[in-house]
Each structure stands twice: as C-alpha cells, then as structure tokens.
Amino acid sequence: MQNASLLLALEGKHLLFLGAIGIGLILVLVIVGLFFKFGNLWLQAYTSNARVSMLSLLGMTLRQVNPRTIVDAKIQAMQAGVGTDAETGITTRRLEAHYLAGGDVPRVINAIVAAQRADIDLDFDRAAAIDLAGRDVLDAVRTSVYPKVIDCPDPDRSSKTTLSAVARNGVELKIRARVTVRTNLHQLIGGATEETIIARVGEGIITSIGSAEDHLAVMENPDRISKAVLERGLDAHTAFEIVSIDIADIDIGENIGARLQADQAEADTRMAQALAEQRKANAVAREQEMKANVALNRAEVILAQAEVPKAMAEAFRKGNLARIGGESQNGAG
Description:
Shape: elongated
Radius of gyration: 52 Å
Oligomer: single chain
Helix content: 55-70%
Distance between the termini: 209 Å
Order of helices and strands: HHHHHHHEEEHHHEHH
Strand content: 5-15%
C-alpha cells in the first residue's frame, strides 16, 4: 500500500515535471519565434536607445500596426534628439495612435526633425494635428524655411494674367505682382489658403491704385503700392505670413476716364438731339392745331354767312323787311 502511494506520488511529480518542461519549451519556442520575427527590429531599437520591447512589437502586430514604420520613426526621432521626454515626447504609444488614426508617421517625424534643425517650434501634437487635418506638414515646414512665391493673379487659377486698376485721372494700369509667403504653423489648422492671399493682395493693389491721384505717380514709385498693401495686414487668419509683395510688371492700359467722358458727351448730344426733335415735333403739332382752328373759324363764318339769306327770306315772308323799308323812307322825308 505504501509502495503504491509512493509510486503515485512519483508519477505526479513526474507529470508536473514534464508539464513544467513543456511549458518551458513553449515559452522558449515563443521567445525564439519572437526573436526570429522581431529580433532585428528589437536589436536595432535597443542599440539606438529607442526603448521598444518585444511585447510592444507583438502588440503592434496584433493591432495591425506596421512595427517597422513605428520603430524607424522612433529611431529617427531619438537619433535627431527630438521628443526624448518620456511623458510628452515621441513615445511608441503616440506613434501607434497616430498610425491607427490614418496619419503619415514618417512624414510627421521628418517634419519635426526639419523644424528642429531650422529652430522652429513644432511639437509632435501640433505636427500630428496638422497631418490629420489633411495638410502636408513637411511641405509646411519647408515653406517656413524657404518662402514660397505666389503670382497675383495666378495663371493656373485664373484666365487673367494681370490685375486691372484705374487711377483717379481715369488711366488704367495693368499690374502683375509676386507675393512671397511662408507658412504660419500656428495658424495652419483652420487658416485660409493661397486663394485668400491672392484675392486679398489683388484687392489691396486695386484699392491703392484707385486712391492715387495720377497714374504717373504709381509708375514712378510702385513700391508705394507694396508698402500700402503690406500695412493692411492681409495675412490675418491665414495659414501664411506675407514676407513681401513685389510689383513684377506694370503697363498702361486704356484711358478709361477720357472714354467715359466721350461716351457721356455722346450721350448728352443724343439727349439734346432728342429734345430738339421733340420740340420740333411739338411745334409742328401746334402749327397743325392752329391751322385746324383757322379752318374751323372759316367754316363757322361761312355757316354764319349762309344764315343771312335765310334770315332775309324769312323777313320778306313775314313782311318785316317791307315795314323796315317804309319806316326808313318816312324818316328820310
């Protein structure tokens, strides 16, 4: 009996030992599998001080995140010395969150590194927000370093190649301007785009020329237009900061004032002719009316003359004409 119990105990320990060995083998296989799958990435991250664990790499795979993208981005950030703070810096969790949100992780890291090299204040949160807003954050940083030149008007967006403005003396000036801008990263999200800059600059140029007394003054000093437009603060609430406005070309167009005066004189002449024709027509109508009145009066005289014989005949018939004649003779005698 004791031998049987001893055998059972030995068999239980043997089973536990075999189970432990099995579990250990499974763990070893898992570790070996992880090492074969992520060993290169983990070693690369470890030697670069990127702090990415094997479990994090496994979790990325389970969350359908590309581990290579995250590791390369973090290595680049660590090597560039940006976002090294453990709490607010560029962490693995933040990179994964931006990747899962549909962001372009490598482009964001490249933008942050470029901004840091150019001494531009751009943290990961702002760069990620700009990227998720649909803006090209790397191009925005490059435009901040190397300003961009915009034609006003832009031939790619408009059929017109020049701006048309009229000075106070009525002479038209055709102007083509070039606007140098750089990105305002603090207003890039929600800020107006290049179309707004072009429209505002065009409006400012037309207003400045319209307030000039003479077109010659504008042609002699075109920089006055640039200064006047810059002082208007046209880059407010836009994604850009205007560096300069340069007048690239200026030509004289039509003398619109003289043409308007000629058109007005022609219109006045036509109006005077119309009034004269109206007065002539009124005179002719009055003349015809007077002629009609004369004919009417003549007709009435003729009618009155026609009544005289009738009256005389009536007097003979009644004897009034003979009595009148006898009285006339007696008075004569």
